[in-house]
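Hi U.,

Before I forget, here's the chain from the pilot set. I'm dumping it here mostly so it's searchable later in email.
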Amino acid sequence: QVQFVESGGGLVQPGGSLRLSCAASGFSFSNSSTRWFRQAPGKDREFVAHISTTGGITSYGDSVKGRFTISRDNAKNTVYLQMNNLKPGDTALYYCGSQTLNSWGQGTQVTVSS
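Structure:
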C-alpha cells in the first residue's frame, strides 16, 4: 500500500524556519520523483517543490524560490522540505506525494504568525 506521511509542521514567527519530512512506504521510493504542494483555506492548491528520483533535479514554485529547499534521502525513504525566511503567506496545509502514483499524504499544518 502506497503511503506518504508528513511531519514537522507547526507555528513559527515570520522570518523563522521549519523542516518538513515526508516518509514514504509501499513502493520503490528511489524510482519515484516526489512533489510538495500546499493549500491555504479558500485558495487553490499551489505547487511548492519537486525532486527527481536521485535528487539531481529540483524545481520550485515562484513564491518559494530562494527560500525553500527540497532534498531526499533514498536510504530512509524520506523527502525533506527546508523552509527559511517564512512569511505569513506561507501558512497552509503542506502535503507530499507522487503525481505518477496519484498518491498523497494527509498533510502537516504550517502557520506563520507573530
